[in-house]
Amino acid sequence: MTTMQTLRPVPRGAGLPSTALRMALQPVLRRVVRRIAARHPEMFARIAPYQKADFLIVAKELPFALHLRPDPDAPVMRAVPKSPLPPCDAHIEGPFMLLLNLVDGESDGDAAFFSRDLTISGNTEAVVSLRNALDDVDSSIAQETADLFGPPGRAVLGLLRRRGAAA
Amino acid sequence: MTAEDFSKAGELVCPAGTPAALRTAVDAGADSIYCGFRNATNARNFPGLNFTPEELQASVAYAHERGSKVLLALNTYPPAGKVDLWREAAEHGMRAGVDAFIVADMGVAQHIATTHPGARLHLSVQAAASSPEAIRYYCENFGVRRVVLPRILTIPEIKQIKRDIPCEIETFIFGNHGLMVEGRCSLTNWMTGLSTNMDGVCSPAADVTYDREADGSMSSRLAGFTIDRFAPEETAGYPTICKGRYNAPHRPDGYYAFEEPISLNLGRLLPDLMAAGVHAFKIEGRQRSKSYVRQVVSAFRRAVDDIREGQAPDIGDLVALTEGQKETQGAFKTKKWR
Asked: Are residues B17 and B132 in the same domain?
C-alpha cells in the first residue's frame, strides 16, 4: 500500500468549522455504509484485493473528505479533515455532483477523467476496481441512502439533483 | 440478406464489462453484446471487470429473453502450455449458451471448431486479418462466419474485401481509434512485463500512476515511465504508450509519436459502411461504465433505425464521452487523418 499526498491545496478556512460537523456525521455515515454493504454483498467480489484499502474521496465543495474502506466484514465510511488529509491508498477528487453521479452510474468515470473534472492518484488498480464494483450495482446507491432517512432524506437528494441538473 | 444471416445488416454490437452494463446495453437496444470472463482469455482483463461463468449464464438468459445475442470474447493468445484456461472458457461459454465466440488464436479457433462444431466463430480484430487471403484462410479452416476488421482500412478497401471473402464483416464505429497492429502490439509487454495479447492487459492499472506536478499539470506514468503530461486545463487520454507524448531531438516540446488521444466516431459514415457490405457495427468500450453504454448504444440504435427507415442518421453529440474529447473518422475516411 502506498501513502498519498494531498493533490491540491485546500482553501484556507475550509476545515475550521467542520470538526463538529464531522462528529455529527460519523454515526450517519456508519449506518449508510453498513446498509449499502448489506444490500449489495456481490460488489465486494469485484474489489476483493482491495477490501482493506483506504480510499479518500474528496468532494471539492464539502468542508471534509470521506474515508472509505470497503471491507465487507467491517465497512468504514467516515468524515475526515481536508487539511491535512490522512494517509490513504487511493485518492479520488471531483465536484460533489459528479461523484454522486458516478456512484449512481449516471456519469462515466473515464469521460470525467478525460475532461479533468475527476482526479485520481495513488493506487490506480484499487480505484479501477472500486469503480467497476460500484458500476455493477443496478440500483441507485444515492437513492437507497436517501431512503434510509425517509421523506427528509429523499427531499435533500431531490434538491441536490435539481441543483446538479441546473448547474 | 438470407435467412441464414446471424441477424439483419446493421447489427449493433455493444460492449459490457459487467452484468449491469450488459442489461443496460440490452435495454438500450443492442442487437448483440460482447463480453469476457474475469481472466486472461480476453483482451480487457481489467481489475473488477468482466463475468464469472454464473454471471454469464444469467446474462445470456436476460439477453435471450429480450431478443439480444451474447458474443463471448476469447480473443487473447494462450501462452505455450497454458491452453487449458481457454478450453475451460469455451466450455463455460457453451454451457451458458452464448451465440458466438470471438477468437484470435488459431489453436483456440481449432479447438472450438472441433470440440463444439455447432458453435459460431467470429474472428477478433486481435487476429489483425486485413486481407482477403488471411480472412479466407480462417473461414476455410475454422469455419469463421464473421471478421472484425482492423481500423486501418478505408471504406473503398472494405468494399473490395467484402467482394472477396465468404463471411460477414464487422467494423468498429465508436471508441478507441486503434491504429496499432492489433494482436501484435508489445509496447505494454516491453514496459511492464505483461502482455496485451496473452495476459489481456494493455497498460495494466497496477502499473499506472497519475501525479500532480508543482505547476498544476498531471503526469501519467506506466511502470515509472512518463508517457504524457497534461497542462492544468488540457483534456486527457488513456495512459497507453501508443498515445504517449514524447520529447525528441527534433520535437523538443513533445509530440504524439504514434497516435493522439482521440476517439473514433463513424456516426456519419454508417450509410456508406452499410453500402460497402458491412454487416455489423461494433462499439468499443468494455472497460467503460454503464452510463457510457446507455448513451452510446441509445445514440447508435436511433441512427441505425433511421437508416433502415431511409432517413439520414442523427447521432447526436457524443464528444463528451470521447478520449481527449476529440473525434475522428480515422482511416475509414482517409489515411491522412493527421
From this structure: yes
Residue A44 in contact with partner chain B when CB distance is under 8 A: no
pLDDT tens string A122-154: 999 999 999 999 999 998 999 999 998 899 889
Please state, in angstroms and as integers, the Cα–Cα distance from residue B230 to each residue in A90, B44, B211, B264, following that order. 20, 25, 10, 21
Report the alpha-carbon angle B304-B13-B89, nearest 5: 170
Mean pLDDT, rounded, of chain A: 88
Q: Which residue of A has its CA nearest to B293?
A: A108
Classify residue B191: in a domain, yes or no. Answer: no
Q: Are residues B57 and B153 in the same domain?
A: yes
In angstroms, the CA B302 to CA B270 distance is: 12
pLDDT class of B335 with cuts at 50, 70, 90: confident
pLDDT band at A36 (very low <50, low <70, confident <90, very high): very high
* Domain span including residue B238: 197-256
Asked, for residue B286, whether it belongs to a domain, the answer is: yes
Partners of residue B205 in chain A, C-beta under 8 Å: 124-125, 127-128
Tell which residue, B96, B151, B113, has the closest CA to residue B265. Answer: B151
Q: What is the pLDDT at residue B314?
A: 85
- Range from A37-41, B147-151, B175-179 carrying the lowest mean pLDDT: B175-179
Considering the domain architecture, whether residues B207 and B286 belong to the same structural domain is answered as no
Backbone angles phi, psi at A120, to 5 degrees: -130, 155
User: Are the beta carbons of B180 and B190 closer than 8 angstroms?
Assistant: no
Same domain? For B41 and B165 the reply is yes
Chain B residues whose beta carbon lies within 8 Å of the beta carbon of residue A7: 212
Chain A residues touching residue B286 (CB < 8 angstroms): none
Domain end point (choices B240, B256, B272): B256
Contacts of B325 in chain A (CB under 8 A): 114-115
The answer to whether residue A133 neighbours chain B at the CB level (below 8 Å) is yes
Cβ-nearest to A132 among B48, B212, B295: B48
Q: Do B321 and A111 touch (CB under 8 A)?
A: yes
Lowest mean pLDDT among B28-37, B43-52, B116-125, B248-257: B248-257
Number of domains in chain B: 2
Q: Is residue B169 part of a domain?
A: yes
